[in-house]
Specification:
By secondary structure, the chain is an alpha/beta fold. It contains 7 helices and 7 strands, in the order E-E-E-E-H-H-E-H-H-H-E-H-E-H. The chain has one domain: 3-Layer(aba) Sandwich (Rossmann fold). Bound molecules: guanosine-5'-triphosphate and zinc ion. InterPro entries: GTP_cyclohydro_II (IPR032677), RibA (IPR000926), RibA-like_sf (IPR036144).
Length: 208
């Protein structure tokens, strides 16, 4: 047991039929928790019977992309890709209530207005007085540990997710990249994320 993050426990589980992007319906187990560090209602959605080191997608909530189908970001198609892959191979989707990279829905929409004025997605957060990415993945580590998972294969292109999970004591044996989901409206957003990932990798390599 790792003591770097406070323990959470499983509060309940319920099975529901979930439609896959291809139309097939699979049983998914939805798990709720008690004791999560930020007090929010995050979920684990489990497909199949995952192995000891499961495939895991840590997805941050995006109401506009996940539910409304907004093409300003790539969240909706990334979620669909993840659900399809987890449905095929088995694994866990961690659906984290960290809308707008942790700044909330209204602030994200304010940030969109600033982006319409020329700022990129990270600059707009800074202009509103937030960090470029205010997400903390402590709750993800708590949830994984509560369901008995200490090591994962992580489905992501974001090096910060891996770094934060490892810092919280979850082993990441491999990162599996998600596909690029380009739309008519998300080119600048994807480019800003790519630039930031490169800069972050450089800072990590020089130990800053
Ligand atoms: N503040 C802000 N948040 C945004 C913007 N566009 C999308 N988001 C949020 O960004 C988050 C997307 O997160 P993820 O899909 O987990 O991930 P990611 O950081 O791109 O990393 P991977 O998809 O794992 O490679 C969601 O919470 C969205 O609401 C934006 O322009 N500004
Ligand atoms: Zn989004």
């Amino acid at each position: 047991m790792n003591h770097r993050v406070p323990p959470a426990v499983v509060r309940g589980q319920v099975t529901m039929p979930v439609r896959q992007p291809g139309g097939q319906v699979l049983a998914a187990r939805v798990v709720t928790f008690e004791g999560l560090a930020d007090g929010r209602e995050h979920l684990v959605v489990t497909f199949g019977d995952p192995p000891q080191v499961p495939l895991v997608r840590v997805h941050s909530e995006c109401l506009t992309g996940d539910v409304l189908g907004s093409e300003r970001c790539d969240c909706g198609p990334q979620l669909a890709e993840s659900v399809a892959r987890l449905g095929r191979e088995g694994g866990h989707l961690l659906y984290l209530r960290q809308e707008g990279r942790g700044i909330g829905l209204y602030n994200k929409l304010d940030a969109y207005l600033l982006q319409d004025g020329g700022l990129d997605t990270f600059e707009a957060n800074l202009a509103l007085g937030f960090g470029p990415d205010d997400r903390d993945y402590t709750v993800a580590a708590q949830m994984l540990r509560a369901i008995g998972v200490e090591e994962v294969e992580l489905l992501t292109n974001n090096p910060d997710k891996r770094a934060q999970l490892e810092a919280a004591g979850i082993g990441v044996t491999r990162t599996v990249p998600t596909r690029t989901h380009l739309t008519a409206a998300n080119g600048r957003y994807l480019e800003a994320k790519r630039r930031r990932a490169v800069e972050q990798a450089w800072l990590d390599s020089v130990g800053r």
